[in-house]
Design goal:
Number of strands: 0
CATH superfamily: TerB-like
Strand content: under 5%
Shape: globular
Radius of gyration: 17 Å
CATH architecture: Orthogonal Bundle
Largest sheet: none
Structural class: mainly alpha
CATH class: Mainly Alpha
Number of domains: 1
Length: about 150
């Protein structure tokens, strides 16, 4: 017979998994917005996104496909990037928000250039992230320096 404690534990585990998926979907939706910002999704940008999802999120190919499908759907339905960014930011520590900001810049630079539209998109998203201005400047500067050294 299943105890109330066991059922409660199962519900908590299910909610934690759903919460992680929501966080991942929101983060990847914003990443897609960055690589779509210049009106052209480059193969290098997509490859960089897949690399981030594999190495940083620990996802396999099937999980990546599912997550990208959900992120594309969310991207089409999102009414406000700032609101989506804020809803993600309240679930993350500042360290994690900065890490995602760094991913944005990595994706923007993946095609060996950072377009003005990509900069504007990142700035728009970050306005809802509640990150210290010094961290924002550092992430942007680091990306531009890496790009200049290529």
């Amino acid at each position: 017979m299943t105890t109330l404690k066991a059922v409660t534990a199962q519900i908590k585990r299910s909610l934690a998994i759903a919460s992680d998926l929501d966080i991942q979907t929101a983060a990847v939706t914003l990443m897609l917005k960055v690589i779509e910002a210049d009106g052209h999704v480059d193969e290098l940008e997509l490859a960089s996104l897949v690399t981030i999802l594999r190495s940083k999120f620990g996802l396999d190919a099937d999980e990546i496909q599912i997550l990208l499908g959900r992120a594309k759907y969310m991207s089409q339905r999102a009414k406000s990037l700032r609101a989506l960014a804020y809803s993600l930011s309240v679930k993350l520590s500042e360290k994690d928000r900065v890490r995602i900001l760094e991913y944005f810049w990595q994706l923007a630079a993946a095609d060996q250039r950072i377009d003005d539209e990509e900069r504007e998109m990142i700035d728009t998203i970050v306005s809802g992230f509640e990150i210290a201005p010094a961290e924002i400047s550092k992430a942007r500067s680091d990306a531009e320096q890496k790009l200049a050294s290529l």
